[in-house]
Write a structure and sequence with these properties.
Layout lengths: L4 E5 L4 E5 L3 E5 L5 E5 L3 E5 L6 E4 L11 E2 L11 E7 L3 E9 L4 E10 L2 E7 L12 E9 L2 E9 L2
Antiparallel strand pairs: 1-2, 2-3, 3-4, 5-6, 7-8, 8-11, 9-10, 9-12, 12-13
Length: 154
């Protein structure tokens, strides 16, 4: 289980989110940056954009890693999930029920930078239709993931 903390910096208008392994900074302009804690040595909130001094491998992953809300939502019989990745990497898309049980996995593949979509027809990995209800979809990109909720109405 990962711990999530929210800090809001009123003077700079920035928001910072931290998990045990990563640190996220969202600037006033909407840009979001992700940094691994073990790569950070110094953080300065004095300038805009936020300056982070540390290891050369620090990546600005969330700048354009985007997961859009599925459409239609609620849906029946199928829905489209769209996402964008900022550079090539391993992508895996999964759908879970509200209890966290895996319902459908679309597999993982190496994808190039760009926008993608996948359609879910409301069936599980065995090809059987799932019941009406709320589900969570997750796009896992390299070491990062984004999730959203969708609703199936039969």
């Amino acid at each position: 289980m990962k711990i999530l903390a929210l800090l809001i910096f009123l003077s700079s208008g920035s928001a910072c989110l931290a998990r045990i392994d990563s640190f996220y900074v969202e600037l006033k302009n909407g840009s979001i940056y992700s940094y691994a804690f073990m790569e950070l040595r110094e953080i300065s909130f004095a300038g805009t954009p936020v300056e982070i001094k540390g290891h050369d491998a620090v990546q600005k992953i969330y700048k354009s890693f985007i997961l859009k809300q599925n459409y239609p939502n609620p849906f029946n019989p199928s829905t489209t999930i769209e996402y964008e990745i900022p550079y090539s990497g391993l992508v895996e898309i999964s759908i879970y029920d509200i209890q966290g049980q895996l319902v459908r996995n679309f597999g993982s593949s190496l994808q190039q930078q760009g926008a993608y979509s996948v359609e879910w027809n409301g069936h599980n990995n065995s090809g059987n239709p799932v019941s009406s209800g709320a589900y969570i979809y997750r796009v896992h990109f390299n070491e990062n993931f984004l999730t959203k909720k969708l609703l199936l109405v039969r």
